[in-house]
């Protein structure tokens, strides 16, 4: 990929990878407004655009040692911003569907349809939450919960101990459960206090 016109020098990039706040601030000042304009043009809401850009810089800082070079900074920021906006969009669709379902009077015959819709939404939400897990936890969770592998089978396949697999699975399950509790508590509040 050709270097972007706003990229930092190689020396500044090395300092950036070592955690230089001065260079990180320069990167922030260089790209923040461009990303904000893009995010706002996609979602039309300042708070969501600002959150998307903030998330992209947090992830950039956390993965700064993995960035290939100065020209890799902006593409990483752009991709993270775009993915954040996509998650927000998907979540808003699920919430809109849920609100719509709650506002319609269903009779007894439609309970099977409601159960199917809720199951599909919950599956989609679960898959999205699994995608947000760290790579190792995600792989272990998918192998155990979706593919049905035992702790021993996963530990053999991944070359780790059975206890590591168990701990990673517990941690992943806890994160997903906490996210689901927060989301459903939010939906409950919206439904009962609107």
TrEMBL record:
One of its GO terms (molecular function) is sigma factor activity. The keyword Ligase does not apply. Residues 28-91 form the RNA polymerase sigma-70 region domain. GO terms for biological process: DNA-templated transcription initiation. It comes from the Bacteria. Residues 125-169 form the RNA polymerase sigma factor 70 region 4 type domain. Keywords: Sigma factor, Transcription, Transcription regulation. InterPro entries: RNA_pol_sigma-70-like, RNA_pol_sigma-70_dom, RNA_pol_sigma70_r2, RNA_pol_sigma70_r4_t2, RNA_pol_sigma_r2, RNA_pol_sigma_r3/r4-like, WH-like_DNA-bd_sf. Belongs to the sigma-70 factor family. ECF subfamily. This is RNA polymerase subunit sigma-70. The lineage of its organism: Bacteria, Pseudomonadati, Bacteroidota, Sphingobacteriia, Sphingobacteriales.
């Amino acid at each position: 990929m050709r270097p972007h016109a706003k990229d930092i020098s190689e020396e500044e990039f090395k300092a950036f990878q070592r955690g230089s706040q001065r260079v990180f601030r320069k990167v922030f000042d260089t790209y923040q407004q461009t990303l904000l304009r893009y995010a706002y043009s996609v979602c039309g809401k300042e708070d969501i655009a600002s959150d998307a850009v903030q998330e992209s810089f947090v992830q950039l800082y956390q993965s700064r040692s993995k960035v290939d070079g100065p020209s890799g900074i902006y593409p990483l920021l752009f991709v993270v911003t775009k993915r954040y906006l996509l998650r927000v969009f998907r979540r808003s669709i699920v919430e809109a569907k849920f609100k719509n379902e709650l506002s319609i009077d269903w009779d007894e015959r439609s309970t099977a349809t409601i159960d199917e819709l809720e199951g599909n939404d919950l599956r989609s939400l679960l898959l999205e939450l699994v995608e947000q897990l760290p790579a190792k936890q995600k792989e272990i969770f998918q192998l155990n919960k979706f593919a049905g592998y035992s702790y021993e089978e996963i530990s053999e396949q991944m070359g780790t101990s059975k206890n590591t697999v168990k701990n990673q699975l517990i941690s992943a399950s806890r994160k997903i459960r906490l996210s689901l509790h927060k989301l459903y508590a939010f939906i409950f509040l919206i439904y009962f206090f609107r």
